[in-house]
Amino acid sequence: MPLKGLLGAGALFAGAVLFAPLQCAAAAEVDSAAASSSAWRYTVSPYVWVATITGDFGADGAQGSTESDYSFWALENLKGYASVHFDARADKWGWFADALYVDYGDDFTGANRTTSLGIKGEIYELGAVYALTNDFGFALVTGARDIDLKVSVALNPGPDGALSKAIVDPFVGVEYSRPLGEHWHVNARADYGGFNLESKSQKHVLATFAYRFSDRLTAFGGYRYLKVDFESTREVLRLTAAGPAFGFSWTW
Predict the structure, then answer these.
(1) Distances (CA, A) of 48 to 2, 167, 171
(2) C-alpha triplet 67, 20, 213: angle, nearest 5°
């Protein structure tokens, strides 16, 4: 198993696809007066997460590590990317759904060998929010996250290899939001998942600032940290993704 290249590709995918929960926070950052009313408000949010990755990977008895600063900024190697988040909020209750697709490929040439890497994956997230106050403040968050990962590697000279993995895990957490003047808003979220079901654990912390241009349009940016720890009798996946994130939200 060609570990060094496989780690880089797997890490890049994890950083690209695990941005989804940020949009739950972004949806809470639109028009506080309307969000606290009984009428439902709906938000759609495209986004990008620029993640730097470290981690460990192993399969079928082979294992290795990466301490790379390889990040999602390598856009020349990105063959395809699409992401969208939908959020619905009423007085205290809300729900959200997220879908993301990424297709990435790269070649690494060494002294005696060329490694060709390819990775495709999707992430789907479905969750619910319950506000503990009528306006801004704390809220409870819960849901499930599905990560589907496919990695292929070809060595010239040498063998080819492939890995396919799907992880579905629940998560629970808290969210805090607060306005900063007429247009600015801050939001923080932390959740924990896995619980030794599919993965051992998933640890996630997020902080964002948003600027509301109008009742409908909001731009946001911030920083996110997520760590996934998965291990079975044949496979090991321990990845940490952290970096800035940005996007915009449209509400009606």
Answers:
(1) 29, 22, 22
(2) 115
Tell me whether the omega of the peptide bond preceding residue 179 falls within 30 degrees of 0, making it cis. Answer: no
Domain boundaries, the chain: 3-251
Q: What is the pLDDT of residue 180?
A: 92
Q: Say what the alpha-carbon torsion angle 62, 121, 222, 53 is, to the nearest 10 degrees.
A: 20
pTM over 0.85: no
The DSSP string of 77-130 is GEEEEEEEEEEEE-SSEEEEEEEEEEEEEEEEE-SS-EEEEEEEEEEEEEEEEE
Q: Can you give the pLDDT at residue 101?
A: 82
Dig out the tokens for 143 from the structure: 């849901």
Q: Tell me the CATH architecture of domain 3-251.
A: Beta Barrel (2.40)
Distance, C-alpha 27 to centroid of its chain = 16
The C-alpha atoms of residue 139 and residue 120 are separated, in whole angstroms, by: 34
pLDDT tens digits along 9-53: 444 444 444 344 444 444 444 444 444 445 899 999 998 877 666
Residue 175: pLDDT band with limits 50, 70, 90: very high
